């Protein structure tokens, strides 16, 4: 397993396609930004589908939004070293498997990841040469309004997510050196432009250009 992981890292470094990693509170708009980036050049990017033990929400499809998996199966795969990073959020496991990233990388595309701060810290310690972005809300009040606007969570779930968001923003201050870009996601066009410039500087070419 260790040899396979070393070979995996070597593949990404050789291809100069370290992953783009998005971090930020639930409801900040990571999914919207990620889709916008991929839409600029679909042949260059692909989203790594994370694993989770939570139940699918209405409209979600296995293998699209997430790879939905039983907790005991995911715990075993974690023990077997099949995950680059994993964490537990609100009682459910989430993680990024080596297989999911390899699928994207072997297609010659740049992998887009969506993780929490612990995941970002784990990826930062590797030789993957990631570009790690933290999306901040304009304010906690604005973030709560976004969550309520989705209409998919109860008041209790929103309360928990807001508590988590406060903790993430606190930890951001402790780990600013991990992030290549920290940006307040107020206007999507400005956020995408800032990310675009950061990617050009990071990769040494314009990955959004077709």
TrEMBL record:
Domain Guanylate kinase-like positions? 17-200
The record ties this protein, via SMART domains, to: GuKc
Instruction: Spell out the molecular function terms from Gene Ontology.
Output: ATP binding; GMP kinase activity
NCBIfam families, per this entry? guanyl_kin (TIGR03263)
Keyword Kinase assigned to the entry: answer is yes
Return the EC number. 2.7.4.8
**Family classification:** Belongs to the guanylate kinase family.
Q: Which InterPro entries match?
A: GK/Ca_channel_bsu (IPR008145), Guanylate_kin-like_dom (IPR008144), Guanylate_kinase (IPR017665), Guanylate_kinase_CS (IPR020590), P-loop_NTPase (IPR027417)
Source taxonomy? Eukaryota, Metamonada, Parabasalia, Tritrichomonadida, Tritrichomonadidae
Write out the entry's keywords from A to Z: ATP-binding, Kinase, Nucleotide-binding, Transferase
What PROSITE patterns does the record point to?
Answer: GUANYLATE_KINASE_1 (PS00856), GUANYLATE_KINASE_2 (PS50052)
- The protein's name: guanylate kinase
Q: Name one GO cellular component term.
A: cytosol
Q: Do you know which Gene3D superfamilies this protein is assigned to?
A: Guanylate Kinase phosphate binding domain, P-loop containing nucleotide triphosphate hydrolases
Where do transmembrane segments lie in this chain?
Answer: none
């Amino acid at each position: 397993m260790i040899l396979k992981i070393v070979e995996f890292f070597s593949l990404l470094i050789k291809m100069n396609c370290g992953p783009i990693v998005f971090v930020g509170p639930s409801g900040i708009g990571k999914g919207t930004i990620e889709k916008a980036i991929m839409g600029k050049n679909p042949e260059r990017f692909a989203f790594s589908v994370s694993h989770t033990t939570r139940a699918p929400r209405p409209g979600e499809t296995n293998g699209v939004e997430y790879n939905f998996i039983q907790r005991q199966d995911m715990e075993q795969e974690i023990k077997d070293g099949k995950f680059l990073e994993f964490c537990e959020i609100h009682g459910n496991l989430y993680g990024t498997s080596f297989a999911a990233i390899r699928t994207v990388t072997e297609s010659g595309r740049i992998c887009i990841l969506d993780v929490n701060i612990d995941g970002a810290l784990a990826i930062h310690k590797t030789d993957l040469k990631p570009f790690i972005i933290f999306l901040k809300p304009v304010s906690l009040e604005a973030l709560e309004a976004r969550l309520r606007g989705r209409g998919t969570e109860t008041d209790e779930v929103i309360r928990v997510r807001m508590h988590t968001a406060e903790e993430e923003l606190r930890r951001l201050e402790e780990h600013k050196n991990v992030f290549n870009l920290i940006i307040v996601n107020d206007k999507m066009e400005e956020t995408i432009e800032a990310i675009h410039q950061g990617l050009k500087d990071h990769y040494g070419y314009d990955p959004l250009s077709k």
